[in-house]
Amino acid sequence: MKALKILFVLLLIAAAIGGGYSYKSIYMGNTSFEEDEKVVLIYSGDDYSEVVNTLREKVLKDVSSFDWVADLKSYPELVKPGRYAIPKGASNNDIVNKLRLGEQDPVMVTFNNVRTEEELAGKVSDDLETDSLIFLEVLKDRQLMQKMGFKKETYPAMFIPNSYEMYWTTKPESFVERMKKEYDRFWNDERMRKASAIKFTPEEVVTLASIVQAETSQNDEAAKIAGVYLNRIRKGIPLQADPTLIFALGDFSIKRVLNKHKEISSPYNTYKFAGLPPGPINYPMPNYVDAVLNADNHDYYYFCAKPDFSGYHNFSKSYSQHLIYAREYQRELNKRRIYQ
User: Fold this and answer.
1) Which one, of 318, 317, 325, 290, lies nearest residue 220 by Cα?
2) Model confidence, pTM
3) What are the extents of the domains in the chain?
4) Do residues 28 and 68 lie in contact, with contact meaning Cβ atoms separated by under 8 Å?
5) Element (H, E) at 85
């Protein structure tokens, strides 16, 4: 009888120890880092062993206890790709639940100062799983453009530079669809009314905004420059916008537009053709779009960069005055040895 009592006590002790281990393995903190959180990236196609290797390197203090809990919850068969922020002190139970349910933490996808679709693909892919070449293929997909309601020349108008919250696993097609929703949201009743007032479509507004953005980095004179171009359009005067020539030539290293550049045969040559070019020459920021919609009402038809290279411009009502400013600027270009 005494032996049975001893055995019973030993079993109770073993159960208590086992229960304590189980509780600790499931609910006690099991992170090895000192920061507030660690971000873990699980790529599409990763299996459980690859996930464990990543967690061993970045997150876990004790891998064997995590393995036990993961197996208990069937996580090895339920691996989901994504970006997961693991908080300091998280338990195996917390980590496994987050990963097996695919509870991703979003990223901010930001793009601005973009001139080409290659640059757009590069900037967006920096924040998402898919690489830039695949993104570029999708951006060049004509059928997808048409589905969104655009053609190749006007397609850039749909992508409004900003910061957008998305999941890291967002696919290129889903990104494009999200941009269409953001475009529709951006063009609210007020902006549509202002576009109609100047007899422009949203795509035409963005096209002019792209030229204004290429002309000035000074936000406080953007509406004034927009007003110059609107005045020229109303009078049937060619825009004669140097940035459209640079776009047509495809050489963004050009710092000084020469007469030979003005001879290029392209619908984007605004020296040869009056009115707007076929589409945007970059992806203008929203403030430049609003600068066109709220363009200054004035009598200026010309502007030229100031020779102090401040980024600001001199404005003229007459061509003769414009020539005076243009010669001053050209002299400064020569002085600085900027010949092309």
Assistant:
1) 290
2) 0.89
3) 2-100, 109-186, 189-335
4) no
5) strand 82-87
